[in-house]
Amino acid sequence: MTLDVGVIGVGMIGQEHIRRLDGGAGGSRVVAVADADAGRATTVADGLPAAKVLPSGEELVASDAVDAVVVTSWGPTHEPYVLACIAAGKPVFCEKPLATTEEACRNIVDAEAAAGRRLVQVGFNRRYDPAHRALKQAVDGGAIGAPLLVHCAHRNASVPAHYTRDMSIADTAIHEIDELRWLLGQEIAAVQVLAPRRSSRGGELQDPLLVLFEMADGVLVDVEVSVNVHYGYEIRCEISGETGTVELADPAPVTIRREGTVAGLVPGDWRERFALSYDIELREWVDTVAAGRPPQGPSAWDGLVAQVVADAALQSLHSGGRVAIELPPRPGLYAPATAP
Ligand code: ISE
How many angstroms separate the alpha carbon of residue 258 from the centre of ligand 1? Predict the structure, then answer.
């Protein structure tokens, strides 16, 4: 069966997903789009054989033509669209963050728990990256013994003009927040954000940041978040365990040796670095929901926890010091491990 998908929000990430959902190898097509910018929606729909423009996200969710919904609009608008999907009983893939406040995320979790079945999947794409999956397999398989320390770096070549200081946490480090919980199978117990000497390339931004996480079992994690490194896009993660270490390999597909140097190409941005993860993430989502099964990927609960931790990190960034994390009670719908 072909899954007929409606997409709310057709900016950069929306168009990336549409490219994968329409006419690709998976069993889906895009039948409706909606966007606050009607002109943009029309331009995108014109390039798709089966898509209509609908006047609003609400009308898209309500449309009988739409089997499942992808929400890729601006973060603060996610909550009402995701709630409407739950009310309509339609599966919804919502880009990260699930919503931009703890309260909004809780409303979604509460609504889904009341509905009694999983409909929501959050776009934490790193869980689908083959290199990250291999990292997790090594840890879970005991290759390095018990994990003790984790060193990560999240480096963006540059960020758009509208990018604010808080987005270094809420939009960027939120990936590590989800990744660490998934990789280590532990909740984050506390966070502290340190601001080193500022890069002159970052304008008004506090760039870089050093984010320290304490996992519930005592593993300590340091994450460098840099958003103006200019040389390319780089994601690093090394886990140090009792009997060995495991780290993400250099993503460069080839190494060039010439004129006395060794070089490898660095991806330009997240679209290039994580292309395969988006392919796999959407293919698995389509296959699952088209078969009438609940989504298996990051849940609304994972989205809520990520937001609670991001809020604590922002509190540390603004006021300094270590902030302990307190999670709300987890509804029974969400089994402890929701990882794919
Ligand atoms: C962007 O939204 C992403 O999701 C990227 O993975 C991240 O590296 C970037 O900093 C974010 O702005």
Answer: 33
Closest Cα to atom 9 of ligand 1: 172
pLDDT in tens, 193-231: 999 999 998 888 999 999 999 999 999 999 999 999 999
**Judgement on whether residues 144 and 104 belong to the same structural domain of the protein:** no
Q: What would the pLDDT profile of 228-251 be if each residue is shown by its tens digit? A: 999 999 999 999 999 999 999 988
Classify residue 266 by burial, with Cβ atoms within 10 Å: 0-12, 13-18, 19+.
middle
What is the distance between the alpha carbons of residues 227 and 153, in angstroms, rounded to a whole number?
11
67 and 150 assigned to the same domain:
no
Residues in a beta bridge with 6: 32, 69
Our answer on whether the CB atom of 171 is closer than 6 Å to any ligand 1 atom is yes
Give yes or no for residue 172 CB within 6 A of ligand 1. Answer: yes
The answer to whether 28 touches 7, Cβ cutoff 8 Å, is: no
Q: 77 and 143, same structural domain? A: no
